[in-house]
Specification:
The two termini are about 30 Å apart. The chain is built from nine helices and no strands. The chain has about 270 residues and is mostly helical. The protein has one domain.
Length: about 270
């Protein structure tokens, strides 16, 4: 048993190593040449390729440890929709609902925000599909489908989420040096990523470990903050910002209390 546990820990560390090397190889090149994917279209391919680090890592490490059959089992989790259908409600609506409340609070307290998609809601469809690939597919096979699974073999869901949230945050660090996250401080981004990690674990565990569910949830998270309700435009230290931070923290604590810190699932 101890030999097996050591083998699993080694593979997990190898996964993190490969994921960071792959992603940072592309992203640090942006830092070295002072190229921002938000401003330079030639920097965009490097930015996108870097995002596939978790996928490249999990496929290579799984193939190394379990062979082709292991990779097939892993990839099948990306099309696994055999979980309770009720969970499609929070998967698709959690983030739009939460950020919709933040948006409403901002409007009621005198802030303005134009929702450009209201004139043509169909523009959200290609945006969702794009994010499903470059965020959901690129990351969730690795972060939730592999790393979270391994961590939860040794720790509770909450502790696993804290560990993975920190590593997930650290993985993003090079993007701060090319202005991708604007004025947000790195410590504040850490808080946000840890909250998200808790929420992703909640979805993943309650859908019987469906990477497909995590992929959709990831795409909906980014679609919401970037397009549906981009409440960051209210301002970093604005009243709606603090309200949103408190709201998301309270929702996360409520989920932990109701579903339990051991599994975040029933």
């Amino acid at each position: 048993m101890k030999k097996h546990d050591d083998f699993e820990k080694r593979n997990l560390l190898l996964y993190f190593f490969v994921a960071f090397v792959w992603s940072w190889m592309f992203w640090l090149s942006l830092v070295v040449f002072s190229k921002s994917p938000l401003e330079d279209p030639y920097a965009l391919p490097l930015f996108v390729m870097g995002g596939f680090g978790p996928l490249a890592a999990v496929v290579s490490v799984t193939h190394f440890a379990e062979g082709k059959d292991g990779v097939k089992r892993l990839l099948k989790k990306g099309i696994d929709y055999r979980f309770r259908r009720i969970w499609f409600v929070p998967i698709f609506l959690f983030f739009p609902t939460a950020y919709g409340i933040i948006f409403l609070f901002g409007v009621l307290t005198g802030f303005t925000l134009e929702l450009v998609w209201l004139s043509n809601p169909l523009i959200l469809v290609p945006a969702f599909l794009l994010l499903f690939v470059v965020n959901g597919t690129a990351e969730e096979f690795g972060w939730r489908g592999y790393a979270l699974e391994k961590l939860q073999n040794s720790y509770s869901a909450v502790v696993s989420s804290l560990i993975l949230g920190f590593i997930w945050w650290l993985w993003h660090i090079p993007l701060f040096f090319v202005g991708y996250y604007g004025e947000i401080p790195v410590w504040l981004f850490l808080i946000q990523v840890v909250i998200y990690a808790m929420l992703f674990t909640w979805i993943y565990n309650n859908t019987d470990g469906s990477v497909f569910a995590a992929m959709i949830f990831h795409a909906m998270a980014n679609l919401t903050v970037a397009y549906i309700f981009p409440v960051s435009q209210f301002g970093l230290w604005s009243l709606p910002f603090f309200f949103g931070l408190i709201l998301m923290s309270l929702i996360t604590l409520l989920i932990i209390a109701v579903w339990g810190p051991r599994r975040l699932a029933r």
